[in-house]
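How it folds
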Amino acid sequence: MMRILATVKIALRALRRNKLRTLLTMLGMIIGVGAVIAMVSIGNGAKAQIEAQIASMGQNVVLVFSGSFSRGGARSGWGGAGTLTIDDSEAIQREIPGVVAISPESRTRAQIAAGNQNWNTSIQGEATEYFDIRQWPIVQGAAFTPQDVRNANKVAVIGKTVADQLFPGEDPIGQIIRIKNVPFIIVGMLSSKGLSVQGQDQDDLIIIPFTSAMKRVQRVTTLGSIIVQAAKPSLLSPVQDQITELLRQRHHITPGKDDDFTVRNQQEIAEMATAQSKTMTALLLGVAVISLVVGGIGIMNIMLVSVTERTREIGIRMAIGARGRDILLQFLVEAITLGVLGGIIGIGVGILASKTVAAQKGWPALIPPEWILYAFLFSAAVGIFFGFYPARKASRLDPIDALRYE
């Protein structure tokens, strides 16, 4: 044990002898480890933000979109064709077990007016259950009722952004807004959700009964989409499959033909949303790993130079009783120290960089503790791997030739 401690002291003394060279040698490790920590932190933060965004859609949600079908060689995307009806929505609720709530949707954008103010915003036609599915509380007033939906009443619930734009400093409840010249009375205001992952303002919207949206605003007879809530997570896939089968029957789609609708569950939507961030994180991690390898090559290069410079020192140590394994251990400890110190500094740099980017861009930065351990162990492994050859070369020097070396 004493011999190992003495070897470590000798190695540290050798590294302190040329501080600038030691720092420059560690630079590759610092950059590589820092990049790994920063990329993993920002990537995990982006993933968590997207997952939170998906979770804000509600629990155990299945989305049914109209469109996404082939006809005459042309393909239509989600919502590209009005293929869903209110009857489809009622059939899903009536015939599929495990469905606890459903909200037919009809969406558009429109210029709205209130007094001498106007604003362009998103208009969403929904059922009363929408607020429970999305877990979106009303902070002022109340939601519209099932009777409002049945009668296609001209009532609306607005987001905070719309309230601030049209009624600054005023109570919006009971006020009148005009959507495409149709007057609606505001019965409630939603709590604020802030920006989405894509930077869109989630509070910039007006929600009205879907019947009112279809008859009074858009004047259509079909739905753009349907939100379905399953009773529990284990029912998501069965409910999704049953919805697909039911709608194929209702739309008279024969085997081998493309669906004229698209069904996605919450998990699939989350995977699609995070796929791009995962790909970018993987690419950047690849670049960071290359930096680590380059840093390791730098350590090997400097250690080889160090062996050449200290050939006489090695010969003297061997002449006074040092064995080959002592020399091997000395140079291996120096290489490991370079890798570990570079890794520790790199971890600090990575944490600082991720926190700085998070603060400037408003992104979350989540640093998994295990990745800090992985980075530390990898930097030590790089030191061992790239330091072993120079250390082995030093341990095999002939003492007589080493003492003669100038």
